[in-house]
Amino acid sequence: MQNGQSYQRIFVLIIDSLGIGATADANRFESLGADTLGHLGEHFRIRLQLPTLQKMGLGNLHPIMGMSSLENPSAAYGQMSSISTGLNDRESQWEMMGLATTAESDVFITGVPLEIATNFARKAKRPLLRNSLMNIRTALRNYGREQLATGGLLLATATSSSVWLIAHEHTISVAELKEDCQILRTMLDNSPYTIENVNGLLFSGNRPANFYPQELYKFPLAPPSPTVIDCLLEEGYAVKLIGRSTQFFDLARNEITWNNKESFVQLQELIDKRFTGVCIAEVGEMEQFGKARNPEGFGMELMRIDHELTKVIDKLQSDDLLIVTGNFGNDPAYPGEKHTREYVPLLVTSPHLKQNISLGSKSFSDIGATILDNYDLGDKLPVGNSFLRELFSAYQ
Question: Which of 45, 138, 250, 267 counts the most CB atoms within 10 A of its CB?
Answer without folding.
Answer: 267
